[in-house]
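Lecture 7 notes: from sequence to structure.
We start with the chain below.
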Amino acid sequence: MRRARRAHPSARAARGTRPQDADATGGGAGDTSYHCDVGAAERQQLRLARGSASPADETVAAGDTDVVMAQIEVTNEGGEAIAGDSPVVTVAASGSGRDDTDVAGVRLYHDADGDGRLDAGEPQRGSEGTFGADDGTVTFDFGVAGSPPGLSSGATVNYLVVYDFASRLADRGPIRIDAGMALAGVAGGGGALVLLGGVFGGATVRRRRALWLPPLAAALLAVAACGGGGSGGDGSSDGGDGGPGTDTQAETFTATLEDVTVTTTGGRTLDIRTPPVQGATVTVEE
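Predicted structure tokens for the same chain:
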């Protein structure tokens, strides 16, 4: 029995390809966006990238507002304009901080002059949002307020993702400080051993960069070296709040453009899924 010849892979692919018919006429001649039928996959019309004036990584203080997290450059590479009130933009959060509590507000602005800074009078797009969960997302719907101008073929526009940070950062939970670890390498320092054991033995402190720990340890070791230190008291001191500038918490935050959906003036809806466009890493200190 004669075996049927298998078609060449390219031939099988050609038979399985559904032509694009953007103008719904059944042919490619009327497709002014692409001028021909290009295959099953519709070409993405938008190019998304980090803007040329994207912010650099920086450190800010808790409570700072209007902090630019990312500049996103959007270019319409198709032959059809994008309706101005159609974009829906999704921004995702990441970093060590608690985005649902440490970020008081998230906004999206049209960076009219493309300088990467939020200037007075630059229009907001969509409504202000907040993250419903740590490492969550916020969606901006351009159609909720006003009628933003559309994006014509070949045009480029820049947007800014802006955060307001809460005045206090969420504690990340207590950590235990092991007296044995704190006293590793100390030999013959009986007084310091008792004192450090009273302060730290089995104790918990807030998860912060406690700047008073190194100088305190150094002082106690010096006392031990001199043979002093006594019994170290009853260990009732817990370091307090450390005074101004001695108890610092630092968390990182990053905003990433995750997804964009737009509608062309011809009524076609495009869900633009590109590699995520990530903004700067901003460190917030309290």
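Points to note: The two ends are 81 Å apart (CA to CA). The chain has five helices and 14 strands.
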